[in-house]
What we know:
Blueprint: H1 2-15, H2 17-44, E1 57-63, E2 68-69, E3 72-73, H3 76-83, E4 87-95, E5 100-104, E6 107-111, E7 114-118, H4 119-124, E8 142-146, H5 147-153, E9 163-167, E10 175-182, E11 195-199, E12 212-220, H6 226-243, E13 259-263, H7 277-306, H8 312-320, H9 325-362, H10 375-399, H11 403-408, H12 413-416, H13 418-451, E14 461-464, H14 473-484, E15 489-495, E16 505-511, E17 514-522, H15 527-530, E18 535-538, E19 552-556, H16 557-563, E20 572-575, E21 578-586, E22 601-604, E23 615-620, H17 625-639, E24 649-651, H18 652-657, H19 661-695, H20 697-705, H21 710-744, H22 756-782, H23 785-789
Parallel strand pairs: 7-11, 8-10, 17-22, 19-21
Antiparallel strand pairs: 1-2, 1-12, 1-13, 3-12, 4-7, 4-12, 5-6, 5-9, 8-11, 9-10, 14-23, 14-24, 15-23, 16-17, 16-20, 18-21, 19-22, 20-21
Amino acid sequence: MFRLNLKIALRNLWKNRIYTTINIGGLAIALAAFIVVVLYVTYETSYDKDLPNYDRIYLVGRSLPDSKTDYTPAPLSKLIKDSFQEVEAVGRARNTWFEFPLNTARGRVYSNKAIQLDLETAKMFEIWPDKRLIETKSMMLEMYVPSLFRKELFPNEKVSFPRLVGIGSKKAGQTVEIKGIINRSDEHSNLKFDILALGKDISFGDQDYGTNNFQTYIQVRKGTDIGALQQKIDLLYKKELIKSGVPAADPRIAGRSVIFLDPLKNLHLKPMAGTDTNNRMVIALFWLSVLIMVIACINFTNLTIVQATKRAKEVGMKKVMGAYRIDLIVQFIVEIYIQCCVAMVLGLIMTEVLLPVFNTQFNLPLSLLNGDSALLWQLPLILFVITAISGVYPAFVLSGYKPASVLKGNLQTSYKTFWLRNALLAGQFSIAVIFIVGLFIINDQLKYMRTEDTGFKTGQVVYIKNIQFYNKPKDFDQARARIIKIPGVNHVTVSSDIPDGSKPGTSIYKLSNKALSLDFLDVDFDYFETLNIKLKEGRFFSRDFYADSVNSAIINETAAARYGLVNPVGKIIRGCDMDYKIVGVIKDFKAQGFERAVEPAIYAIKNPCNNRKTKIIVNIDQNRMAAVLATLKSQWSDINKLDGEDFRYEFLDELYGRLFKKQEQLQSVFFFAAILTIFIAILGLFAFSAFTTNNRIKEISIRKILGATDLQMFKLLNVFFIWIVLIANLIAWPLVYLLARQWLAMFAYRIDMPFFPFLIAGIVSITLTLLTVTIQAGKVVKMSPVDALKYE
C-alpha cells in the first residue's frame, strides 16, 4: 500500500509540475532565508556558552546618577573575594584604548584589541595557554596571542615559542616576549583580543577607589541569591568609598543602589551598561524570517487546497473501496512531507550560496558545514513544523470528500474553502505590505541620519592614529607648527576623544550646590574650530588667555540647561578636584549618533581625570586632501618622533558613518525580505488566479457570446483580487504603524511617521496584482467561446 501511495504521490506531483515547482520553489527560498537567520541567531545568542560555568559568571557594574558603567575600581575585586563566601572566583580585565605596533619579519603589524587579564579571569573564561601559568607567583605580565592573530604576525612561518618581537618605534629598540598561543580561532566571546597579557594581579596593588578603569568578573556558587549578593556588595562598596573620603551625601552613592551584577549571557546582546541594538537586530531578523516562513507556508497551503478538486474522484473511489479517512490523511501528509523534504534540500543548497553574502554584510563566520551542532536537531524540527503547518489542514480537506457527492459530480469544495483561501491570500499580501512599508521607513530614517545637521563637520576632517601623549599644550606645539604649515591644512588639534560614537569618561561636577555627572573631554586649542562646532555664547579657548590652559572650561547647551543656568559664562564649576571657570557654551552636537540624546559635557585643556590626549585631528581643504595626506605621510617620522614610522589615518566621516552600520544592515535585510515576500506572494497569486480563471472558462465564454468585451472580462477577473489586496493593506497598515513607531522610538533624533510609504505600498501591491492576474487571464479571455463550449 505504501509503495502504491508513493507512486500516486509522485505521479500527481509530476502531472501538476508547474504548481509543484511553485510550491517547492517558494518554500525552498523561504527555508534558505530562515536557515541563515537560525544560524545567525544561534551564533549571536551563544557567546561564551561553551563555558562550564556560563550561568554563574557575572560582570560587576556601577550605576551613576544618570547612566551605567561596567568600569570599577581595582581594589573592588579583592574586597569581594575576601568578604563573600558565595563568590567562588573574582578576576579583573583591562582593555587598551589605543593600537600599538609590533615589529616582525613581515613588517609592522598593529594590535588594537590588546587586553590584560588576571589569572582568575583567564581561568573563569578558560582561555589560559597552559596550566603552569595558573600557579605562577610572578607579578610580571606574560604575553600571548590567539591563533587567529598569530597568522597575521607570522603568516608563513613555523614559529616556536617563546618568541621576541619588537614593540613600538623601531628606534626605541623595545622588545617583548610572546610566551605562546591561545587556542582561539574566532571571537565568539565577550572577551575579544589580539594580544593577551596575563598576570597574577594586573592592578599591581592599586588601592584607589576613585579611579574606575577595570572590569570585574565574579563566579558565584550554585544556588546563590544574586539579588541578595548584589545588595551586600553595594553596601560594602559604599562603605569603602566613604572611608576613602567620599561624603555619605554624595549623589554618586546617596539614596540609591550603585552596584549591579550583569549576567554573562546578557553582555553581548543586552548589557545593562550599554545599548541593546544587537538584541533588537537579532529579534528583528528572527521575526522577519518567521514571517517569511509563514508566507511561504500560506502559499503552500493555498495552492494545495485550490488543487483539491483534481483529487476528488480519487478520494471518492478509495472511500468506496473501504479506505478510512485516517489512511487518506496519512497519504496526503506523506505527499506534503515529500515536497517539504525536497524543499529542505534545495533550501540547504541555497543557504550555502547565500551565506558568503550574509557573512560579508554582517562580518560573521557562519557556515553550514562548520556550524553549531544545534543545527542537527533544528533542521528536523523545522521540517516537522512546516509539514504540520502546510499539510495538516489540506490533508483534512482532501480526505473529507463525501463519495456520493464526488461521484455524482456535485462537489463544491472550492466554495467550502473559499473563505480560507481568500484569508490566506490576504495574509500573504499583508506581510508583503509590512515589509514594503518598513523598508521605506528605514530608508527615510537613514536618509535623515545621513543628511541632518549633526552640529559638527566630518567631511574635511582626518583622524591620525598615534600613541604619543600630548597632555600639555606645549607638548603638541612642535607637531602643530609643522602640520599647520602644510598648504591646505585649515586647523589641527589633539584630544582625548573624537566624535565617533564612543562614550567619553564621566565624572561628578558641582555648580551652585548642584552636582551632575558630565562627560569630560581633554582637548587642546582649536578643537572646536577643527570640527566646526558652533559657539552659543562666550568664546572658545584661546592662546591669548593664559588661564585657558590652566583652569578654564567650556560646557555644552545640555549641561547649561541641566544646571538651570541662564548666563553660565563666568560661573565656577568644580570637578576632578579642581575649580574651572566657564568661558563659553557650545551648541549641542551629536557626537554619539542619533540613538542617544546629547549628554551634558565639559571640555577643558587641563583635566586631572583624563591625561591621555593622543587623538590628532586635522581639518583639510577638500580640494587639497590628497596632496596634504601625501605630505603628512612623507614628513610624519619628523613630525611624530615616537610613532612616526607609519602614517595611519581614517576619515572622520567614515568613522562616524559606522554608527549607522546596524541600521544599514537592517535596511539590507528588509530590502531582501520585501523582495522575497513579494516574490512568494506573486507566485501564489499567479497559481491561484490561474486556477480561478480556468474554473470560470465557461462563464467567460457565455458572457462573451452575450456581448461582453475583453476589457470587461479583465475587469471582472481583476476586481476580486484587487479587493483582497486592498483588505490586505488595511490589515497591514495599523500593524506596521505600531511596529515602525516602536522601532523609531530607539532613536533620540528621528523622523515623524511618514504617510508616503503606506501609499507606495498600496500602489505597488495593487499594480503587481493587476499585472499578475491580467497576464494569467489573457489566454482565457482571448480563447474562442466555441472551443470552450463545443462539448456542452
